[in-house]
Amino acid sequence: MTTPAPGWYPDPQGRPRQRWWDGARWTEQYRHPGGLGAPIPGPPAAIATSRMAAHEAAAPIPAPPIAATASSPRPRAEGAAQPPIPQPPAPRRLTRLSVVLMVLSLIFAVSAIIAAQTYSTLGTEYQRAEQEVADAQTYLQKVKELFR
Question: Of 92, 94, 83, 21, which Cα lies nearest the Cα of 52?
């Protein structure tokens, strides 16, 4: 397999940018195609800019050397290190501890609501009982005055 010449190629990871191929491997140099957005640092200083400009003007951008389709494995250039393809994060699963904590939180919230309602009701009942005691004491005083 022949290795493509150094140059800017579409990002092999499918992102909307170009990546520098140094002739042997992908570098960490990126740029946006067509000058969109802020420029990203160019190729390593060892490659002359005139050679890069001549290459870009003379040849259309070929497919990246490590491009892959869903049905075929990735071709490998001899001696070329290919960048790892990032995998999406695994979905988070609920652990037993998190389920227990959620249940305990729910029980605590319901208990707090019941306690507040009970306290409110008992407070009203206590005030009513105090008023009845005061009324009974007043009535008792009037009865004592009648029999004196």
Answer: 21
